[in-house]
Amino acid sequence: MPRRRLGPLEVSAVGLGCLPMVGYYGGVYDKKAMIALIRTAFDKGVTFFDTAEVYGPHISEEWVGEALAPVRHRAVIATKFGFGVEEGAPRTLNSRPDHIRRAVEGSLRRLRTDYIDLLYQHRVDPQVPMEDVAGTVGELIREGKVRHFGLSEAGAASIRRAHAVQPVAAVQSEYAAWWREPETKIFATLRELGIGFVPYCPVGRGFLTGTINENSRFAQADRRSTLPRFTPEALKKNMPLVALLRDWAQRKNARPAQFALAWILAQYPWVAPIPGTTNPAHLRENIGAAALRLSPAELREFDVALAAIPLEGHRADPFTQSQIDG
After folding, report:
1. What residue ranges are annotated as transmembrane (predicted)?
2. Residue 272 in contact with residue 15, Cβ under 8 Å?
3. Active-site annotation, residues
4. Are 121 and 109 in contact (CB under 8 A)?
5. Using CA atoms, how far apart are residues 136 and 85, in angstroms rounded to an integer?
6. Which site among 136, 229, 253, 326 is 20 to 30 Å from 125 CA-CA?
């Protein structure tokens, strides 16, 4: 598995997102099976594992901690604070310094470790100055409980304010062939400041894998049932993108998910996607994307075809969007 740098932090080119394991897209998953999946990812070269206290809540961190305990010092664990999980309000933003410290102590305990490699603020909290957030994380870094600071779904102004107090190693945001907003909103800032980028949902919550079609419907427990891009109308309108990815994947002797990930990896060397999965076969596909190469000419050709496809539907529901920093 090739390695990449997120600021000063070295990670595998493809990481593993550990949110779907707690049933985010429906389903109930066996703890032993998910722990085995995480260990398989590590054994196949993945060193970068993404979780958060709010995933479950707590369950994802517990499983990641148990899975990686035997190899802790060779794995990079990223987790997040920023919602009121410790206060029993997991949908409410909370980045007050006292909350950050409580959240970190809980994460350390669940992750079975004495340090967190990459600690993200999960969402920017407009009620707490970014300088206070960055300062608190800086204190935790000096205390040895955290090694690197990250931000999730932060806008350029927030990134700059945070970085001025405590250097930011990585920024995480949704990014995929069908959602490219970070390119125009934060990429220039990341390049300037030497900050890495971690795309989540890099295969479009499954849409870019070719396993979803215009007749697909989602159960209430599946997060996609609430998202504008997964309405029947949007699915039908966006199917030409699936066809484009399928054609390019065949051209490169790959699977559509692999091509979608390879496209992301080809953007910049400081980008490391974290596709989530609960399926060992899909894990192997995702890891294989790191070996797929796209030339500059191929990237240009694909982007021209992609730009010609009108896409329908926003990535987030109104409540979720209200908690995303501009």
Report:
1. none
2. yes
3. 55
4. no
5. 18
6. 229
